[in-house]
Design goal:
Elements lengths: L1 E5 L7 H14 L9 E4 L2 H10 L6 H15 L4 H6 L12 H11 L11 E7 L4 E5 L5 H8 L9 E3 L2 E5 L1 H4 L3 H5 L6 E5 L10 H4 L4 H4 L2 H21 L4 E4 L15 H17 L1 H12 L1
Helix pairs in contact: 1-3, 1-12, 1-13, 2-6, 5-6
Length: about 290
């Protein structure tokens, strides 16, 4: 069984979308026709749903959606910025533009209708439990729930569940794909590693307010690295991770400025160039 796993990372999802576009270009085949499972968290789950919807979107089209809809989703409206206290008193963004984009591109499709099985992560605040969404939800609802990052978007109410971003426990969902068993090849795509240091002199006197936003990045980044380390040992050659440092682009989840979108595209192009041989290997395995 061949599996694909895509990390969370907000607007930085543009990077794996472009890597997948390169794979589709080299193979001449849609991603969903080459894998048996796609696992996704947050922005990675949005990509997963788009790839596996009843009429699959091409990865290049998905990348275009990031550049067109991203600035609308992460538009910092002055009224909201003031009322939310820049995300400290309330969520920073209205989820309306996000849901509009999901509805526009995923339509009425359900997870059950996916052309390849999906594994979507979310966390239930009321049950205090990690969830894997597989069936019984629309793609829009599942993608919305797994993208509801604390401080950025409000939680999502689905039935008796109150769901938030699956990144709080699985920013890198590759380990859940591996746990499905009998995986012959697992391609794991990152959204770029954080590069901003948090020096001791800066954090030593931080309290809840100062840690509110940085701790999310720390948990996300540390969780992704932990999964990569585990699978590197457990899966060996059956596991391939394509990840890059964000030396030029911002590592913020919500920087959808024109300048940063261009920088993310350059980061993706550099990753593709540097890991071209690994991408060729992935293409050969996926089309075998």
């Amino acid at each position: 069984m061949r599996a694909l796993a895509i990390d969370g990372g907000g607007i930085r999802g543009l990077i794996p979308a472009l890597v997948l576009a390169e794979i589709e270009q080299r193979t001449g085949r849609p991603i969903a026709s080459m894998v048996d499972l796609i696992a996704g968290t947050s922005t990675g789950a949005i990509i997963a749903c788009a790839l596996a919807r009843p009429h699959p979107m091409s990865a290049s089209r998905i990348a275009e959606v990031y550049t067109v809809d991203g600035p609308k989703i992460f538009e910092r409206r002055l009224v909201k910025e003031i009322s939310s206290g820049a995300g400290y008193l309330d969520e920073r963004y209205d989820s309306g533009p996000l849901v509009d984009s999901l509805r526009n591109h995923l339509g009425a499709a359900t997870l059950d209708q996916a052309t390849v099985p999906l594994l979507i992560t979310a966390y239930d605040l009321e049950a205090r439990a990690a969830l894997i969404l597989r069936q019984g939800y629309s793609m829009v609802d599942a993608a919305h729930a797994t993208s509801a990052a604390p401080t950025y978007f409000e939680p999502v109410k689905l039935g008796d569940r109150t769901l938030i971003d699956g990144g709080v426990f699985a920013i890198n969902p590759a380990v859940f794909a591996w746990a499905e068993g009998e995986i012959d090849f697992l391609l794991s795509l990152g959204t770029g590693e954080h590069t901003r240091p948090l020096p001791y002199a800066t954090v030593r006197d931080w309290g809840k307010l100062e840690w509110a936003e940085p701790i999310i990045d720390v948990v996300f980044d540390g969780g992704a690295d932990a999964v990569d380390l585990q699978l590197s040992k457990l899966a060996g050659a059956a596991y391939l991770r394509l990840q890059t440092r964000l030396d030029e682009a911002s590592d913020a989840l919500d920087d959808a400025s024109e300048e940063n979108l261009a920088a993310l595209q350059r980061e993706a192009a550099q990753l593709i160039e540097q890991r071209s041989a690994d991408i060729d290997r992935a293409c050969a395995v996926l089309t075998a």
